[in-house]
């Protein structure tokens, strides 16, 4: 039986659905991307000097300047480049009056086709006005192509227009000083060359000065006998007049030899719309989510999934930046966010994409080995905390490099990918080496300690997910993930040995080495408070005074922008879910009663200054039987960028939060997790929702999960009946396949 096609509701994001109409905010929210490059929704008339086109992985470096540098400090900034604004257009009257003013009056982003439609009223200093409709779309199968169409109609001006468009070499923009590490930072100008190949085709070549990356872009007009410059438009006949343009963005390389002349202009706006629509149909067939009872929420979750798919690198050489391709905040860096918040969506809906994202980490493994040596660890690998090219780019090591847990996060993601795909070829070729090298790091980084009769393996001077508590001993989250990392080596090794016992020797291992890793896993210390009967965030967290109540006022958040780090570090205050994040990842570790105790305690000391926090609190509230609280946290998660909750969406979307919103629906409201080849679901649907229906892929099977107030059904939509067991509300069920 073939795949059952989703008939997608008519989902459109408009100006009515967003928090305000500030230009920089709208540029982010209505941005388009395809994993390779992104185009912010800049005003085509007024433009924006610092943000336009972003290419995933196209970056420049510059030395990091320290007042007092130390051995092993990160050496270079890595900053994604802001390339020319492809949307900008020059419009003038036939007598030379420039249209320099514009007002965006309507926006419509179609989540079913990926088409963005906008309307502007543009005007000259002399008061002449024209209506301009703009349609733009990204190629999704053809990921090097983007198209835009301008349609002009008369307003109080109804004579001739001259329309011209070109790729302009960017001017040096002045960086606005900011202490906010989330803000956009500027890189130096690259080497730029531009020329008109023909009257209707312009070539733009850009090469970075330090990284020696290069990319070629082409811009062309898609009308017969048209030219980019001085295209006339006559408004006097009262008809709408449309001009179509298309841009080609080549692959990034140190020596770009791609010549797109033959393939360029082979498309059209209509063809790109079809290409985009086909892609999005596939996305929704695999991962459609429908929420009944709250239309705003239903639209928001579709938007979040849409942007996740736009942001993810698809080539195995790029990943998902913290702001995706919607803005240059965090300098275009990749973080642990991918593995823990965004990759699960792909792991359970599009395993090929998940594989590509993991492959990026494998490509950076040599640099991770170098980083471990720089930290004085003679074996294993330490992946960079924030990076584009695999080298560490975090200039503040207490909240950067010290978050060693990224190693175990990546190993955890590899394990989850294998758990659901049984892709042993990937494990043999790439996955096991990453898991083994991270385990070797933990083995050499940690130390044994005898406490009474207890001999335990500990990790000192680390920072967990809570960046308001730095350089501590035995962060619970870090230790629990390292414990899992050790055990995963043993588990995956046994899987490979089933295929061939000789595979162990390929990695320099013997079966006795596996016993060593199992022993380490068994003895990793997990701090626990007997007094409070909860897992301790670290050895010292519970001994600190709580953050003063008088400083916990809205104007003081986020704390990192108002207080010196050493002030924050002295207190018992958490930026985000930390120990609770481990509780989410390992639901088998603790009872519901312990979860309730931990939740109550850590909720009281958490500021949620990180966008990564609320989704985890939502999931755990649902699991412990408080769906109303889960819903409240979830609403902040689901609509974070659409209401600009963190007040910095102008610098780019919060991609990890977008992934977290999907997790909150799936792992929270439907209680999803996988353990020992059993897929578990439990109904935690809040009363505020009438129904939740979503799709996910388990092995080769697409499942549809349907929740109402008193029922949870799981059916097979396409593929075979999975060999995995399926548990609903604690009872194993037999799956049926719909026809």
Automatic annotation (TrEMBL):
<dbReference type="InterPro" id="IPR037018">
    <property type="entry name" value="GH65_N"/>
</dbReference>
<dbReference type="InterPro" id="IPR008928">
    <property type="entry name" value="6-hairpin_glycosidase_sf"/>
</dbReference>
<dbReference type="Pfam" id="PF03636">
    <property type="entry name" value="Glyco_hydro_65N"/>
</dbReference>
<comment type="similarity">
    <text>Belongs to the glycosyl hydrolase 65 family.</text>
</comment>
<dbReference type="InterPro" id="IPR005196">
    <property type="entry name" value="Glyco_hydro_65_N"/>
</dbReference>
<dbReference type="GO" id="GO:0016757">
    <property type="term" value="F:glycosyltransferase activity"/>
</dbReference>
<dbReference type="InterPro" id="IPR011013">
    <property type="entry name" value="Gal_mutarotase_sf_dom"/>
</dbReference>
<feature type="domain" description="Glycoside hydrolase family 65 central catalytic">
    <location>
        <begin position="303"/>
        <end position="662"/>
    </location>
</feature>
<dbReference type="InterPro" id="IPR005195">
    <property type="entry name" value="Glyco_hydro_65_M"/>
</dbReference>
<dbReference type="Pfam" id="PF03632">
    <property type="entry name" value="Glyco_hydro_65m"/>
</dbReference>
<protein>
    <submittedName>
        <fullName>Maltose phosphorylase</fullName>
    </submittedName>
</protein>
<dbReference type="InterPro" id="IPR012341">
    <property type="entry name" value="6hp_glycosidase-like_sf"/>
</dbReference>
<feature type="binding site">
    <location>
        <begin position="336"/>
        <end position="337"/>
    </location>
    <ligand>
        <name>substrate</name>
    </ligand>
</feature>
<feature type="active site" description="Proton donor">
    <location>
        <position position="467"/>
    </location>
</feature>
<dbReference type="InterPro" id="IPR017045">
    <property type="entry name" value="Malt_Pase/Glycosyl_Hdrlase"/>
</dbReference>
<dbReference type="GO" id="GO:0005975">
    <property type="term" value="P:carbohydrate metabolic process"/>
</dbReference>
<feature type="domain" description="Glycoside hydrolase family 65 N-terminal">
    <location>
        <begin position="20"/>
        <end position="218"/>
    </location>
</feature>
<dbReference type="GO" id="GO:0030246">
    <property type="term" value="F:carbohydrate binding"/>
</dbReference>
<dbReference type="GO" id="GO:0004553">
    <property type="term" value="F:hydrolase activity, hydrolyzing O-glycosyl compounds"/>
</dbReference>
<feature type="binding site">
    <location>
        <begin position="575"/>
        <end position="576"/>
    </location>
    <ligand>
        <name>substrate</name>
    </ligand>
</feature>
